[in-house]
Amino acid sequence: MTYNHIDKQIIGELIRIAGERNVLLDPSRIETFSHDETSKEEYGHMPDVVVTPQSTTAVSEIVRLANRARIPVTPRGAGSGLSGGAIPVYGGIVLSLEKMNHVREIDYDNLTMTVETGIVTNEINNLVRDRGLFYAGYPMSLETCTLGGNIAENAGGGKAIKYGVTSRYILGLEFVTPAGEVVWLGGKLAKDVTGYDLVHLIVGSEGTLGIATAAIIKLIGLPAAKSDLLVLFRSPQEAISCVPVILSKGLIPTAIEFMDRRSVETSCAYLNENLPYAECGAMLLIEMDGRNPALVESEAEAVGDLCMERGAIEVYVADNRTTQERLWAIRRNVAEAFKVYCPIQSLEDIVVPPAAIPAVIPELDRISGQFGITIPCYGHAGDGNLHATLVKDPNMPMEDWHRIEPLSLAALYEAITKLGGKISGEHGIGLKRKDFMKKFMSPTELELLKTIKRAWDPNLIMNPGKIFDMED
Amino acid sequence: MHILVLIKQVPETDKVKMDPETGTMVRSGLESIINPLDLYAIEEALVLKEKLGARVTALSMGPPDAERALRESLSMGCDGAILLTDRAFAGSDTWATSRVLAEAVRRVGDVDLILAGERATDGDTGQVGPAVAAWLDLPVLTYVSSLEIEAAPLSDTTTADSVFLHKTTPAAIRVRRLTEEGYQVLEAAPPCLVTVVKEIASPRLPTLRGKKFARSEEIARWGASDLGLDPATTGLIGSPTRVTKIFYPKVARNGLRIVAADEAGIEKAIDHILALFEKKGILDKATVEDGASTPSSPFATSSALSSALERSPIAGGAPSPDTAAAPAKPEFWILAERRSSGLDIASFELLARARALADNRGALLAAVVLTSALSEKDAGALIAHGADRVVAIESPLLGNFICERWVEALANLVRARNPEVFLAAATTTGRTLMPYLAAKLGTGLTADCTELAIEEGTGLLLQTRPAIGGNIMATIKTARHKPQMATVRPHSMQPLSPDPERRGAVIRLSYESLTKKDTPRSPVQVLSMESNIKDFENLEGARIVVSGGRGLKKADNFKLIRELAHSLGAVVGASREAVDRGWISYSHQVGLSGKTISPEIYLGAGISGAIQHLAGIRTARTIISINTDPDAPIHAVADLAIVGDLFEILPRLTARLRQRSTGAAPHEPSILSSDTPAAAPHVAENRADTSKGA
Ligand SMILES: Cc1cc2nc3c(=O)[nH]c(=O)nc-3n(C[C@H](O)[C@H](O)[C@H](O)COP(=O)(O)OP(=O)(O)OC[C@H]3O[C@@H](n4cnc5c(N)ncnc54)[C@H](O)[C@@H]3O)c2cc1C
Ligand SMILES: Cc1cc2nc3c(=O)[nH]c(=O)nc-3n(C[C@H](O)[C@H](O)[C@H](O)COP(=O)(O)OP(=O)(O)OC[C@H]3O[C@@H](n4cnc5c(N)ncnc54)[C@H](O)[C@@H]3O)c2cc1C
């Protein structure tokens, strides 16, 4: 793929459209736009210019200009992505939506909010909490990501079993096409089959089809009570076998988080948490929420009973924030604990049918043995979405790691594909995983994706080099 | 064995957010929880139960809704729970609260051990534990970090009692107490009351089984009449102290902010830190060593001060006490404390404060010391620093702090002389002794005051203290009771320059003459003092504290903090995150559940500045923060806020300090080489004449 360079004249036009202070050229200032939360050394690439427009009109004019001049445009939210989606692999323009963060309307009658996509996701919840409402589509990174990034990745949070992922809460989009046209899709509608569901095609398209500048999102009632259970099991099999039993009883936890033995040990050691985990082969962290504290408590107890019946070693209960914090700290600190062990890692988000989780664990053991790396496994058991993380041995030379990382990823993806799984459940393909698409997606499906891309973006200016390469 | 655990339900402070501009607390969404320090007491009780067999009962005074806290204690493993609740109890201060709790303990009857958290995170006084012990005439052991019970042999009658699991009868209780100077190892005969610090145990989580048990268990509710208390003497009406004013301290300091994002920024940040050290006279230490000049600082470490006082000549001769004649002027007293190295610097600070108050009130100021023997030099130093009179209660039995014994002597003396005001430093001794004494005397006590004043007109003592983690300030009065008692935060004031011309009487009293006991036998024995422990430092007394938090990422990296501290002669502090992760021991923890400090300089690196942490450093004179996050709350309270990476800044800062010191003293690789800086001359000149009396 070749694109045109950015010259003085283009810069001049960008300044005219967005204003001087919204056009950044100084390399020291645009350096942070060269990477996201993936390894900067491995995937980083500098943009030529960063633009931070403040209106949809400006976004549209920038995209129109880029389309005319054949300059790649990479939309960017907060850069918290874990697949390299916001990295300008072909240079060009990074279009950062950080200044498009205004709330246009909160509609308490329809329970919707119309908001620009550069808003930090957590802000949405801060705005409506006092009214007893919340936006349930948020991911765990809610304080450091934007709604736009969530839409582009179809992010999923820790509460997806009960509340679903981002897509469920996106009712409408204000969208700038790669040609620079502005269009409203969807609306404040609970149902809408008027034509193809373009809103949900855009959700999860990783910024390759255009730029979402504003969205109508759905708000729901904020549950007042919650109760958490930390359940210790002897084996991953025992732990996972509880999940369908719980769900089939009509008990709907907001989260069922899984941690394998290695994750538990490392995180507890890091936190100096003295839970009696010696015999424990896996843990589930289960959260129930609802309006009525007594009801939540009794449902949590029912879940705990089911786990005990199925061989749990112990069930701990937390129904105040302090103890809840203590439980969640174990789950939340897994990644950080392994970073202390070795910061060189590949954070994955494979997804398998929930019942296949126990079968994943021996595969991880096999792969880590084969390549001399550590692969802790933790994540959202309720939806089969696991953060199997490849962690370099601290003593392994970097050359070896660079050689081994793609090989072990291929082995991992191979194994989960056999189990009916896919390579990404919530972080997206982006730059990081695109090479594996050919191998693990059927040619027909891949061709459909490319056909859509070509139709939407014939000049291929919109976030090129992501999900798949057109030339392949 | 029957163990009683005193627990309190408190609003969780975790989520307390302060509005940095108005300084008001954002109260929305506060939950009630068991006072976190009480969890350690519960855990210790449960550990003892598992080891030795015991029945554990949780006891709480509070509103009906405090039942939740008791249920939680049951679900952790306590066997029973009692709630003391009555409208008449509302508004109780620590004195009134401890009275109700003590009556309840009496009603429970057979108790071998009472455990409590060292303090509650809301009121933050630490007074209830010792005061309960005082009401019950039990020995009290505070700040306990480990506990062992020696069991008496089983007797036939107790084994049959399976319900109450009275399997063991404790013969002796051995504890380690965390003090400023190290760990004091004590042994006490049961029953006694023990207040614990975090180090003692790591609390277990409630289990599902426990939860079910907790739900089915009946919780006894006792009111004033059940305890035989007259409602007219409880609660607010029965409380000697009154809060007269609540205000919010200004939180934000709006200091200088430097962004150390690049090379130039880092250099600039380091330059500013060094300049600040220089301004504070910290870097002069290197020159002191050379004897080239004298330190510009008015401070001296306690060891330096006392070594200087060693050399100060004073005249001797103590007049005999005249306890019969009532003094013409009102008396203000302070408790002066001796450390192994000499008088505690905090006692001199206290004298400075009390001097001003006494002058305002036209009162006579006495320093009371309990010790094996008070040297003339020490007595002279107290006078030179502002005391009109030194009262030394001397006995070989008083060499170590044993609360009940000290109180026995003091209570009689107070009753005899009837001082108007009695102050002690809020040290581990002051915070144990004073509540015990106040309960015995039937008067109020205000903890950890940072400001004291005399009210115009009434002449009453206005006692101002931080509460709720330093987020509010409360002014408290003890209007109807004497003496008006308070503990005062150490290092919240500087000592006076000693005046060699000052005169005062030294009155020496024997313990025996005060207690009228021939063979005083305390149930508490001091076994040893572990003062040379690795990794133990006296944070409270430190002039400079360098602290690290979770931003250090791992235990190894803590050496960056240690090295910097070393090159500054500073003491190492830590956030709870760092302590919880085992990177450094608990004695270094700064904050709500650790230590409250007022150093000249506090440098925090990789610490976010959660309110519980800030609670410990509010009265630090200068705060320097190093944190990558521009929005970290610690930056808002810092005088010098460095937005930058500690891994880049700390090593370079340490290197620069070392460079300077080698520059100043070429033979010494570190400016720290001398731990005992030369004495300040103004202290060395100190002189007092005590022969003439007051
Ligand atoms: C600690 C941590 C925890 C995380 N937890 C989760 C989790 O629980 N669940 C989860 O799903 N993810 C998680 N993530 C990943 C990441 O936060 C999400 O993918 C998030 O949605 C990215 O948002 P962002 O604003 O940072 O997007 P960026 O990283 O800036 O961009 C991501 C992609 O979105 C595109 N994009 C951004 N804005 C727009 C727009 N307005 N229009 C079109 N395209 C746009 C970019 O081009 C890019 O392809 C986590 C990341 C971290 C670091
Ligand atoms: C009842 C109760 C009592 C408590 N008592 C205390 C107490 O006594 N003392 C106490 O400290 N806490 C106490 N806490 C805990 C408190 O709430 C916080 O959790 C704790 O203070 C946080 O510690 P931290 O600042 O080290 O960690 P964090 O809050 O995780 O902060 C780490 C900081 O390091 C920064 N950082 C990361 N990397 C770098 C880098 N390379 N360079 C510079 N900065 C970096 C980050 O930006 C972050 O701000 C208590 C909590 C409760 C509920």
Structural features, described:
- The complex is a heterodimer of chains A (472) and B (694).
- Helix content of chain A is 36%, strand content 19%.
- Chain A is α+β, with helices and mostly antiparallel strands.
- Chain A has 3 domains: 1-222 and 441-472, 2-Layer Sandwich (Uridine Diphospho-n-acetylenolpyruvylglucosamine Reductase, domain 3); 225-334, Alpha-Beta Plaits (2-Layer Sandwich); 342-433, Alpha-Beta Plaits, CATH 3.30.70.2740.
- In chain A, the strands form 4 sheets. In chain A, strands 12, 13, 14, 15, 16, 17, 18 and 19 form an 8-stranded antiparallel sheet that branches. Chain A has a 5-stranded antiparallel sheet with strand order 5-6-10-8-9.
- In chain A, helix 1 runs antiparallel to helix 4, helix 10 (261-271) packs across helix 13 and helix 14 packs antiparallel against helix 15 (398-418).
- Chain A is globular.
- Chain A starts with 7 loop residues before the first helix and ends in a 16-residue tail after the last helix.
- The model of chain A has no long low-confidence stretch (mean pLDDT 94).
- Chain B is α/β, with parallel strands linked by helices and 694 residues long.
- Chain B folds into 3 domains: 2-239, Rossmann fold (3-Layer(aba) Sandwich), CATH 3.40.50.620; 256-292 and 537-685, TPP-binding domain (Rossmann fold), CATH 3.40.50; 297-529, HUPs (Rossmann fold, 3-Layer(aba) Sandwich).
- Chain B is 29% helix and 26% strand.
- Chain B has 20 helices and 33 strands.
- Chain B has a 10-stranded mixed sheet, with helices on both faces.
- In chain B, strand 31 (601-605), helix 17 and strand 32 (622-627) form a beta-alpha-beta unit.
- In chain B, helix 7 packs across helix 19.
- Chain A binds chain B through residues 28, 130, 229-230, 270-272, 274-275, 301, 304-305, 308, 314-318, 320-323, 325-327, 339-340, and chain B through 12, 14-15, 28, 31-33, 36, 72, 75, 202, 205-212, 262, 553-554, 580-582.
- The site of one flavin-adenine dinucleotide has 32 residues of chain B, from helix 16, helix 17, strand 32 and helix 19.
